[in-house]
Amino acid sequence: MNLWQNYQQPETISETRAILETARRPLAVIAGGTDLLIDLKQGRHAPVHTLVDLSRVKELHALEIRGGRLFIGACATISRLAADPLISKHAAALQDACNLIAGPQVRNVATLGGNVAHALPAADGTIALLALGATLEISGLEGIREIPLEKFFSGPGVSILTKEEEILTGFYLPLSQPGQSSAFIRIMRPQGVALPILNCAVWLAKDEKTMQEVRIAVGPGGPTPFRAVKTEELLRGKKFSSDTLAEAVDCTLAEAKFRTSARRATREYRRHLISKLLCDTLTTAWHRAQEQVGGNG
Predict the structure, then answer these.
(1) CA-CA distance, 284 to 39, in Å (whole number)?
(2) Cα atoms in the 13 Å half-sphere on the side-chain side of 163
(3) 181 Cβ neighbours under 8 A, 6+ residues apart
(4) Which of 67, 129, 147, 153 could form a disulfide with 134 if both were Cys (CB 3.0 to 4.6 A apart)?
């Protein structure tokens, strides 16, 4: 049985919109296809009539400073982001994550848009973007809209994207300023299984001794990608110290909803791991921010 009947490969966003409006349903959109094509072949996704391949849409490959923000097109590959100097300068946590996603062959094809669009609660790119304060750009039959990343998810593997009428076109990130930086660390099985047991991303802005602003994302910390907002509030304005880190761990344990996964880890093991993981990620972001005092990074 054919997995699709009609293959479309538009070259512009406007051409993509026209296909979305007129193509026969059911319809699916791919960029790198590293997840969707496997799901189709293995029967985890219903066969589609029209497959829309976005890989030739040049606008979706943009990576640039745009309107005072960093714009990352949804079709930017993971390997490109892992090596790009703009990502290193303004989104260190995302670069950390991209260097850990899958293996080199997959990173050369997989895209950041696909990583986010799958709406998995522990997707590495998603967790990094959440801590970085990303805004999504979505294009559809009704035009273009922007939404904060945390409002994109409605359940495990479910987003607000109207998948036969809209596409994720890119991400906007604030530019990094002196005294600001970020970090991403994950814990995975030693044999290199791609799925993380637990991951964490932190963005912070500091002065000489205190954390002025903090964003923390943990995956999986609930049914959707999780921001530890109560822990962020606790840390805001606090001195960076071992006692403060211990308070942050206790607060995260109270607000995160860790669960047992038969293929990854038990709830209890994840609760044990978060202590080390959160402290290490906060410490790395703090030291990186310290290095940026007096210069951008």
Answers:
(1) 36
(2) 17
(3) 92, 203, 204, 285, 288, 289, 291, 292, 297
(4) 129
Residue range 172-207, pLDDT digits in tens: 999 999 999 999 999 987 655 567 899 999 999 999
Prediction pTM value: 0.94
Give the other-Cβ count within 10 Å of 207's Cβ. 11
Task: Spell out the domains of the chain, with CATH numbers in brackets.
Answer: 6-53 (3.30.43), 61-174 (3.30.465.10), 180-292 (3.30.390.50)
Element (H, E) at 243: helix 242-255
Cβ 28 vs Cβ 52: under 8 Å: yes
Q: Quote the DSSP letter at residue 157.
A: T
The whole-angstrom separation of Cα 39 and Cα 114 is 13
Judged against a pLDDT cut of 80, whether residue 297 lies above it is answered with no
